[in-house]
Amino acid sequence: MASRPTIVTTVPALRRAVEPFWHAGERLALVPTMGALHRGHLALVREAKRRAKRVVVSIFVNPTQFAPNEDFSSYPRPIKNDIATLTDAKVDLVWAPSPEVMYPDSFATKIEPAGAAKAGLEDKFRPHFFGGVATVVAKLFTQTAPDFALFGQKDYQQLRVVTQMAKDLDLPLKVIGIPTVREKDGLALSSRNVYLSAAERNVAPLLYRVLKAAATRIKKGDAIGPVLDVARIEIDLAGFSLDYLEARHALTLAPIASRKDGPIRLLVAAKMGKTRLIDNIGV
Ligand code: AMP
Question: Cα–Cα 20 to 30 A to 213, which of 18, 50, 103, 119?
Answer without folding.
Answer: 119
